[in-house]
Amino acid sequence: MNEVYINKIAKFLPNAPVDNDGMEAFLGKINDRESKARRIVLRNNGIKTRYYALTEAGEPTHTNAELTAEAIKALFDEEFKATDMELLSCGTSSPDYLMPSHAVMVHGVLGNRNVEVNSAAGNCCAGMNALKFGFLSVKSGNTKNAVCTGSERMSSWMVADHFNKEVENLKQLEQQPIIGFNKDFLRWMLSDGAGAFLLENEPKGEMSLRIDWMEGYSYAHELEVCMYAGGDKTEDGSLKSFSDYTSEEWLSKSIFAVKQDTKLLDKHILAKGVDSMKLAMEKNGISPSDIDYLLPHVSSQYFVDGLYQGFAEAGIEIERSKWYMNLRDVGNVGAGSVYLVLEELFRSGKLRKGQHIMLCVPESARFTYAYAYLTVC
């Protein structure tokens, strides 16, 4: 089995950063009213700026495939050309289409050569699942290299126009024409962008990150769906697919809107995160002292203190000085977040050979968690 190294990291963030006051100009006002949830959500999530693949008029500037391709292109140079790529593995929760898959659409934009492709679906863990596919391919010798990506283009899902039919339907039913908090909440949480890693079977350049191990855990066997799109919850908590609704209901109920059960999120996301982190550390025989940098993907600053406390109570306390985050400036880019924060740390000048980095990614969709342990070489 080969060793696997991240030799290059690149990113692409579209357009200029958007501050909190400018968000509604891009996303629009539903029913011409300012959102009641916006200030509450922004106060708790700690995000100050984010990026949108939109004009200020709400028109798209990039597809998700284009965002991803731009990040990948930044990996190419004389030492690693576009035609050298053997495997393309892409993860996202906001593909441009139900089909074809995200990875083949990215490959189409690149137009480089015949390669193996893999698309990882899901939510925030999709980026890590894409990474694991590439990791295992290079480790097994199936390929000598792999380009792995995480990306999102959620802004186009959040523009006010997508909710107008639901608001009109509520008016006709003589109900309050305000969309539910489970939908409005996420309009102020999610951002656009893409990151890309080049994995190879030997270290190259001044610095590489060796992937020592990766682990994943799902709690879907015991917990119901928390974050979803393309369906809606029934009274018993089960999920009903868009294909079982009428086309009229797709609009009147905003079936394709991204929704989150915030009560479930608050109840389980930290507890299962602590549990899975401890399992991963025990399985691989490491302790908090073996971690020099912890890169936790958190959707909101609201969860940081609780996660730290949970680790401490579980006997795996990791000093806050070791936590490295960029949520405030980049926002929550879902499957792309872990790529973007590692890219920032990689070029920060802080890393020293022999240090260890833990990537920690939770996914609230049905409570899935992914981890990676890296050594600086």
TrEMBL record:
It comes from the Bacteria. InterPro entries: ACP_syn_III_C (IPR013747), Thiolase-like (IPR016039). Keywords: Acyltransferase, Transferase. This is 3-oxoacyl-(Acyl carrier protein) synthase III. Residues 281-360 form the Beta-ketoacyl-[acyl-carrier-protein] synthase III C-terminal domain. Transmembrane segments: none annotated. Pfam families: ACP_syn_III_C. It comes from Sphingobacterium deserti. CDD domains: init_cond_enzymes. One of its GO terms (biological process) is secondary metabolite biosynthetic process. One of its GO terms (molecular function) is acyltransferase activity.
